[in-house]
Write a structure and sequence with these properties.
The protein is an alpha/beta fold and about 400 residues long. It has 2 domains: about 170 residues, Rossmann fold; about 200 residues, Phosphoglycerate kinase, N-terminal domain (Rossmann fold). It contains 15 helices and 17 strands. A 6-stranded parallel β-sheet has the order 5-6-4-1-7-8, sandwiched between helices. It has a 6-stranded parallel β-sheet with strand order 11-10-9-15-16-17, sandwiched between helices. Strands 13-12-14 form a 3-stranded antiparallel β-sheet. Strand 7, helix 6 and strand 8 form a beta-alpha-beta unit. The chain is elongated, with a radius of gyration of 23 Å. The two termini are about 10 Å apart.
Length: about 400
């Protein structure tokens, strides 16, 4: 486990101290309000913990992609009301990130009060990880807390630079994420199964190459499976398939063989001649019976049952990406079935299950099991880079 300090390493009384807290408030907006406040709920325990101990809490976040320029529509003041509603606390908006305006705000805030700095990305120094910019922010704080795992794969001033300038701690959401990821691939209970789905092999090449060396069972789903089937000589008809990557697919399967990793490809599939809800041409067949005009849109019931049986022999599951075109019924059947099996095993206590990525979160919610996995990460890019075996700058900077 990476060695980092958490809020438990801080004194119980933080009165008179200023905590600079990096959070993810990049919320999806509709008509001037957030349409989803999941990210605020995730950081609420950290903010309230610090506030309850008497710290003046200054929230730092980015919002959209202003590219170093001020835009009124991308000010973090846009989400102030949403954050106040979730925290059930008043927040002071501070239209700068450093300098006399911030000093003045800190002098007005009482112990336990919360302030929200403006969009870090209004300043080019944030994304450039400019040491002077980081110093300018750091001079306002006594300690730094990073609770934005979703931004941990970026080496920015607020995610990486500040950690070198102040006593640094992982917030509650970051701590939970790092513990879950360690349990999934760092020091997992074996055997480990990884489910990797999605449309294209090209976007997940690094993930696959890392996983075949780490896990005992690799399940390939979604459009990616078609490329692997084609590499094995299966005619996939009109299915989404990257025919130019069949050599790469074969190489990954060879690497898996050498590493003692079993690659699971479907042997029965659900096909149709058109991609639509419950199309009349829908049928289930063996992979070798796909017709030239048909598309593979999900994996079949026998393959799902076999995957469930394999999963029952495993102790750990890492999941990124659906098995079929789950947004369009009935091509959600395989994803839902395997997700429910994983959830049941997790609830029994026999499986540690960690899932992440936007599509995956949506698929698990659709299956009604998002709360039954050990951990579901909402971080897209950071979760993928972690699955690729890459060091995340924001995490490395917290590690002492």
């Amino acid at each position: 486990m990476a060695n980092f300090e958490t809020l438990d390493d801080l004194p119980g009384d933080l009165s008179g101290k200023v905590a600079l807290v990096r959070v993810d408030l990049n919320l999806p907006m509709q008509e001037g309000r957030a349409s989803d406040v999941t990210r605020v709920k995730a950081v609420k325990p950290t903010i309230l913990d610090l506030s309850d101990r008497g710290a003046k809490v200054l929230l730092m976040a980015h919002f959209g992609r202003p590219k170093g320029q001020r835009h009124s529509t991308m000010s973090t003041s846009m989400v102030q009301g949403d954050v106040e509603r979730v925290l059930d606390r008043e927040i002071m908006f501070i239209p700068e990130v450093m300098g006399p305006v911030v000093d003045q705000a800190i002098s007005i805030l009482g112990d336990g009060d919360i302030g929200l700095l403006d969009n870090l990305r209004f300043w080019p120094g944030e994304e450039a990880n400019d040491p002077e910019f980081a110093k300018g922010i750091a001079q306002h704080g006594d300690l730094y807390v990073n609770d934005a795992f979703s931004a941990a794969h970026r080496a920015h001033a607020s995610t990486e630079g500040l950690a070198h300038l102040l006593p640094s701690y992982a917030g509650r959401a970051m701590e939970a994420e790092l513990k879950a990821l360690d349990a999934a691939l760092g020091n997992p209970d074996r055997p480990v199964m990884a489910v990797v789905g999605g449309a294209k092999v090209s976007t997940k090449l690094d993930v696959l190459q890392n996983l075949v060396r780490q896990v005992q069972h690799l399940v390939i789903g979604g459009g990616m499976a078609n490329t692997f089937l084609a590499a094995r000589g299966v005619d996939v008809g009109k299915s989404l398939c990257e025919h130019d990557l069949t050599d790469t697919a074969n190489r990954i399967m060879d690497e898996a063989d050498h590493a003692g990793c079993t690659v699971h490809l479907p042997y029965d599939v659900v096909v149709a001649t058109e991609f639509a809800v419950n199309p009349p041409s829908l049928r289930t067949c063996n992979v070798h019976e796909v017709q030239p005009e048909e598309m593979i849109l999900d994996i079949g019931p026998q393959a799902v049952e076999a995957l469930g049986d394999a999963l029952k022999t495993c102790r750990t599951l890492v999941w990124n990406g659906p098995l079929g075109a789950f947004e369009t019924p009935p091509f959600d059947t395989a994803t839902v079935a395997l997700a429910r099996t994983a959830a049941a095993l997790t609830q029994d206590g026999s499986l540690t299950s960690v899932a992440g990525g936007g599509d995956t979160v949506a698929a698990l919610a659709h299956a009604g099991v998002a709360d039954d996995f050990t951990y579901v990460s909402t971080a897209g890019g950071a979760f993928l880079e972690w699955m690729e075996g890459k060091e995340l700058p924001g995490v490395a900077a917290l590690t002492r």
